[in-house]
């Protein structure tokens, strides 16, 4: 009897051959897709085929039209958002996990998926310096990780006031106070919106020139308050004074949005910037940012596993073999992929020293970039404490967006524009394992060339 999966094997070989060829081109290709490549995307605008196509033909079309229209964010000269590349072991694990096609619902549906999530959870808590009894949930990214942790916080703060939101809902619920710095990330605000909170309810705290909350300006808080902090400002990379905030919390729930900045805890050289972070109640980070796993992978970490379970479980609590809750009862999704596989591969291949080196190299490259920009006449607007650089060219400050666009169109690098403390600027995030000194130098040359055309 013929194995029907031979068709899958053939498709996998075809895809591997084409993916291998794609990766070979990345160091020298345009980081942004060319206008011609973008225009060819209209070739996908066809009616759905009436008849089946051979898998190889389908993959060929994806590659021949799609690959040129990608942004080469897997390479070393992409500095937009806070996007890492994909570590070799994590990429290989993604391919293998795709062949497995596991549904990590519980231990019965995927023994390997659940096992690796539990192993990786312990590794993450260790390398991030967090309490060993925290829960770790693997979700799509920081937005859903914030949603997960803040749902647990909301329910707990209401429970303290005698309100069971799982039975009574939010209508007529007692108030929950929310305290946040004015530099809170938009994904946290989105999570709050999904949880039924509006921005008018937030008690805003002023921030300093680096985007850190000024702890002396915190309002008096209590045990019905949610305090939103961050490790790693999306522009400056700075972290809130979490130790001071926790000390003043008065039993408030303290949440740390550390989508990329929490990884600073993995390096002895940067860990001090997060002083006191381990005393918070919940934390969020991404794998697909500084750890360089494939998209999409975020982690919701909580000191109070029961609170997460109570917020996320969909039926009367029951325990799996070994007394551990099923993954489906610790995150929003039921049908969920084996994200823990790629995180395990990344951490296993790097080891603790490798993760610390990844963090340290990114920070060193950011400092190299900042020094080179200064040599070009730029003013650096942030203290370069992690992997973020914010810079403006005084003579052409108002044309920061033009400079970013012109460099993108050159294909030499990709970074974006921002507005930092009222000043138009360029924003760089050095987060890819693939970025080298040569990439930084090539980027600087492209910026110099662009500036010369504006003079």
From TrEMBL:
Its cofactor is pyridoxal 5'-phosphate. Its EC number is 4.1.1.86. GO terms for molecular function: diaminobutyrate decarboxylase activity; pyridoxal phosphate binding. The keyword Lyase applies. It comes from the Bacteria. The modification N6-(pyridoxal phosphate)lysine is found at residue 289. Gene3D superfamilies: Aspartate Aminotransferase, domain 1, Type I PLP-dependent aspartate aminotransferase-like (Major domain). The keyword Lyase applies. GO terms for biological process: carboxylic acid metabolic process. Keywords: Decarboxylase, Lyase, Pyridoxal phosphate. Pfam families: Pyridoxal_deC. Belongs to the group II decarboxylase family. PANTHER family: GROUP II PYRIDOXAL-5-PHOSPHATE DECARBOXYLASE, MIP05841P. This is L-2,4-diaminobutyrate decarboxylase. It comes from Aliiroseovarius pelagivivens.
